[in-house]
UniProtKB/TrEMBL annotation, chains A, B:
SUPFAM superfamilies: NTF2-like
Isomerase recorded as keyword: yes
Protein name: Steroid delta-isomerase
Domain called SnoaL-like: residue spans: 11-110
Keywords tagged on the record: Isomerase
One GO MF term attached to the UniProt entry: isomerase activity
Organism: Mycobacterium fragae
Superkingdom assignment: Bacteria
């Protein structure tokens, strides 16, 4: 089981990669058979290929990302963050709470993102 | 399925009852066969009797509770809050992120609380 320090390191790396990383970089944090449900209630992306496709949507955009709060318990983490995705003169800011469950290797086994339209601000 | 407004109402009622309610009041928010894992990685309390026992631990104490942030997606909610439990001249402040999944009747089917010792401050 990963330590709380391992989990904190991975969450901080995730935030850094949301700002500056490629889809391939982000997928490396995930287990082979991981699931991503973002937002919760939407489509569940299963496996690294599907997850790469999900993150490729933001890959080309200029982004900023900031961790707002982080809670770690057992082999899971819940964290609030603020992601800015720029597009031309505008863009959007989205402020989700994500939950990640980690496997014994410290890879993300499941991610669920809690947000809705009222957590998105147009720039 | 409960609406986002229904879910927000129940979360706000939960925060209010953490401050002022009895264990019985809190249990009324839960489905008969609900589960509570607080903190995540600890014992899972299954069913209303076990959940009542869990909340009875704070029932006698003077408390304050404040919702910090709330995200609603699908039939789930994630929210950060600050709970103060007073004991004599001291007490503690705990700042978890909780996740709740709701059933079709709008009752809480599952609650998971993300916090560890470093999210608890002694007064």
């Amino acid at each position: 089981m990963p330590s709380a320090e391992d989990i904190a390191h991975t969450v901080n790396r995730y935030i850094g990669l949301l700002a500056k990383g490629s889809a391939d970089d982000l997928v490396e944090l995930y287990a082979d058979d991981a699931t991503v449900e973002d937002p919760v209630g939407g489509e569940v992306h299963i496996g690294q290929q599907a997850i790469r496709g999900f993150y490729s949507a933001i890959e080309g955009a200029e982004r900023e990302c900031e961790l707002v709060s982080l809670r770690i318990a057992g082999n899971e983490a819940a964290f609030q963050f603020r992601l800015t995705v720029k597009a031309g003169d505008g863009g959007l800011v989205i402020e989700p709470i994500d939950v990640m469950a980690f496997n014994d290797d410290g890879k993300v086994a499941a991610m669920k993102a809690y947000w809705a339209a009222d957590n998105v601000t147009q720039l």
